[in-house]
Amino acid sequence: FVDGQSTSPLTAPSEHGRPSGMGGIPAALPPHTSTWALLVCTSRYWFNYRHVANTLAVYRTIKRLGIPDDRIILFLADDMACNPRNAKAGCVYSTPQGHDLYGEDVEVDFRGKEVTAENLVRTITGRQTEDVPRNRRLLTDEGSNVLFYLTGHGGDNFLKFQDHHEIQSADIGDAIHQMTVQRRLRRMFFIAETCQASTLFESIRSPNVLAMASSDRGESSYSHLVDHEVGLAVVDRYTYYLEKFMDERVPTATSKSATMAHLANAFTFDELGSTPVMDTRNFPTPLEKVPVTEFFAGVMNAVDDDGAVTLPPWL
Predict the structure, then answer these.
(1) Which of 51, 153, 177, 224 is catalytic?
(2) For the whole model, what pTM was predicted?
(3) Quick check: is 165 catalytic?
């Protein structure tokens, strides 16, 4: 994806000549000491059930792989589990016969009317008011990898929040740039699951940010798997195949065989009905050298003034 055009249905060339330092950020990556996730569903109302299921499917995957709730910031614009129309009360599914994604241990940080573009940007940039508790803050540092997942209804360079207001691609790019300048980011993997999703990362210029979209400019992102008991499609196609890939190829947090190159090639136009786009403009590392677990699994690494510290085996 270069200059607003998709150069390939899967991956775009990386700009290896691009400066690796930006805004005072050192060129060499610091040790990877933590993995955080920012998962955002921007849609409310019953007919958008699948967007909540999308987000909870990713939430279930990263918790299975060891990212704890205190390193996950979860935005859900509606509570589908408790909706009176839900024939499967208290539950949310991404497949008709699959796992209950809601369960008993979902920790929602921002819900309902709290899910706004302003709160998202404040969370990314760390510019929240003093009364916001620690569990709702993205307390990353220069050793943190971040998985940023967005789903909802969007269009060319925007994503809607609850049919009320929008966030623009420039807002996303600026927020991530601020995070980089603040030295609160080592690497980021940004996923956009919406119509014309690739336009949402056109304004990202920060180094070490990898982005993937469920659809290219001018394309829709499609729903999948109607549950006749619920009466709706329960998931979007990209997230369904993402969850399938993670379940099949990444069984544990220590799995290193599946790389971001494998993930990039796990989606086809025939499956999605749209063009999956991997944007590597700002990500100089070859994808085949980056395990998927860099972004989807928890880590327990420690560093001191001399560098990485080997932890004892019982930790």
Answers:
(1) 153
(2) 0.89
(3) no
